Amino acid sequence: MRPRVLIPVRSIYRDYLLSPPIVESLEQFADLEIVVDPAGLESKQYARLYAGRDAVLTTWNTPLIGREVLERATELKIISHAGGEVRPFISPELFDIRPDLILCNASNVMARPVAEHSLCVTLALLRSLFHFKEWVREDENWWEYDPAKNVSLLEKKVGIVGLGQIAREFIRLLGLFDTEILVYSQHLDPEKARQEGLVKSSLEEIFSTCDVISINAASIPANRHMIDARLLKMIKPGAVLVNNGRGMLIDEPALIAELETGRFSAAIDVTEEEPPAAGNKLRFLPNVLLTPHIGGPVPAQRIWMMQEAVANLKAYFEGKPVRGVVDKQRFLYMA
Predict the structure, then answer these.
(1) Number of domains the chain contains
(2) Cβ atoms within 10 Å, residue 131
(3) Selection from 95, 105, 77 nearest residue 318 by Cα
(4) The domain that contains 232 carries what CATH number?
């Protein structure tokens, strides 16, 4: 008997994510039901969608899969998410109500583009590319620029806050630059760090000594504003701060206050409020490279997430290993 797969999807994403090749690949091994805009259903109607399903393929903005849904979904075996974050729509009750249920995501294919973006903005700020773009237009002293505006990443000290898949992919890319890498992670064993060529460090050491600081910690309540005014004041002159994690990790008013000193520069792809208010100073400070949350897979790469979600479903029903499994521990600490 072919598995019965439910796909709840918003109308704005249906044609974009469920392209003919994706649907065809699913139909090769499963019977599908695509439900458009399920958020408009009453809770009982929504829960009934899951009755009799063997699997669910979720995308962005999936409504909550909580107790009411899980009590209906008695035959559900796997939830395969075509994205990274699962906490917005998965209730923690899942692990108690259905400990047998497999939850997996596509974060492994998302990590590479985010790490690429982190490297891109790091190099752009170290080399002051946007400064020099204006410099060559307006200054006649072609060669007489401030040397502090032209800095290499080679052999620099890089601090990584949080050690998830994105951070590890960024570390892999940094291997090309012979950097010294300091890592703050409560889950990293110092000896294992040494074996991997990393140095387990404190936040204080990272913020006071590193040339580049990359924020990749999990967006859990305990980490709200973990990067506070005290740490931000430690950042040394000329350093680069990169936040491709979540805006809530940094005390934004404190960050703005320190950036206004001009002491360091920052690449910010995520803000506490998205989009930031029209008058938010991050939009205008000359030492800030603010981007509109574009660090993830570019539009042409987003099919990778759907392909991974489909591959995980196919693997499960063929009795093969599933990638990106999210167990209770990972659920609590993942970004």
Answers:
(1) 2
(2) 16
(3) 77
(4) 3.40.50.720
